[in-house]
Amino acid sequence: MARAGAVEAGAVEAGAAPLPPGVFRAMGTVVSVRPGVTGPQADAAVAAVATVFARWEARCSLFDPESELSRVGRRELALPDASEDVREAYALALHWRDATDGAFTPHRGDGMIDLNGVVKALAVEEAGTALDRAGFVRWAIDAGGDVLVAAALAPGSTQPAWPVGIVDPVDRGRLLARIDLDGARRRAVATSGSAERGDHIWTMPGLGPSPFLQVSVAAADLVTADVLATAVVAGGPAALDDLAERHDVDVLAVLRDGQLLATPGWPRAQPASAAGAGSPGGSGNRPISPMAS
Amino acid sequence: MRRRAMILASAASAAAILGGWQLGNAETTTTVPATTAAGATSSSGATTGMTGASSNGTSGTGSTQSSATSGAASSTGSTSSSGATDGTYTGSTVSTRFGDVQVQVTISGGAITDVTPLQLTDHDGRSVSISNRAAPMLREEVLQAQSASISMISGATYTSAAYLQSLQAALDQAGF
Lengths: 293, 176
Known about the structure:
- The complex is a heterodimer of chains A (293) and B (176).
- Helix content of chain A is 29%, strand content 18%.
- Chain A has helices spanning 40-60, 68-73, 84-99, 116-133, 222-246, and strands at residues 23-26, 29-34, 140-143, 146-149, 162-167, 175-181, 188-193, 212-219, 250-255, 260-262.
- In chain A, a hairpin with a 4-residue loop joins strand 9 (250-255) and strand 10 (260-262).
- Chain B has a three-stranded antiparallel sheet with strand order 3-4-5. A two-stranded antiparallel ribbon of chain B has the order 1-2.
- Chains A and B meet through strand 2, strand 4, strand 5, strand 6 and strand 7 of A and strand 6, strand 7, helix 3 and helix 4 of B.
- Chain A: Pfam families: ApbE.
- Chain A: This is FAD:protein FMN transferase.
């Protein structure tokens, strides 16, 4: 029984520190928007993204007792009578349940339907579409570690890729790796794991705790990346091999002992020169010191 | 011709089984002819035991069309006493539980020397990689992130409380 991590109630603390421009709280986490422009247009882009998130939260948040999904859970609202957003998100979650042999599922152990595993990614995808329509061409959105970037302007165009850092789950002040999103075959990367919220992903029956501390999946779209990252954490190495072979994705998984597993397509550093003794482990994982505001 | 078709049929089904084996979900244990196994390009690493999904292609898949034949194959196909005409043949599409597989078979000296999966599509018709298995990777091998060049961070989902100590917050403040 795997599901995406539920957001703790009250995750939005009262009197929380102010956030930098282009950043807002939603779905129990924080969304960062890079509109690719500055000035009033940038503010409009962030507002457009926030609007999309607010709608999805009203539909599917289990921490809002008045959300449609909460009402469905209380049997106040029959699923067929729910909005198209909810029904389509549920159908999508069921599709992925089947596509992952149950490693990903929207059904919680207590019988509740939990769509967190797809809703955040759906919100980011829809927000991106809204930015496209508004004429933004080089945007990126990061919703609690789920990253989606604008499509490349044209196939084969030489616009620079978006470099995305992957957090080291052993030392969250450092970066473990980098993956460059090209805006085409790789527009999205999502990371799932137990580093942040405890073991928030239920593993498949009989598997025990996940052997993976953290799993990152890069794909052409964020729903695929997000769902498969969750499914691999839930399903273990067998799910990793199976799902990586069935989908066009790159995967980097961190085992509990810190060892890494990666699919062949995950970007690698240039091979160390034969002359050198190899770089010492962890070089380049430089911490970023938060800048004084 | 009929004999060649039978050989190709068995090659196709063997390849389908092999494709299932490469996909790594064993359901039934199947013995794969050694000649086929030798020519298979498997990237799934050190797997022992030829187990494969039982394919429904073990019979009736002999309707093969010869594709761009390499070298010695002639379209008329004078069959030697040892079996099939040398050349490269494209088999028909075989369904497995993972999707459809189409294979290319190379016959040399009357024996199958190579079986290459040409395509594998999932049930939605999209092509599927069959060589995307995860392997151990050293930390020195990963592409390192220079903080100055990074604009976004992907990590296990952080709460808004954790965000304030996160790398993403630092990048947001810096306006990357």
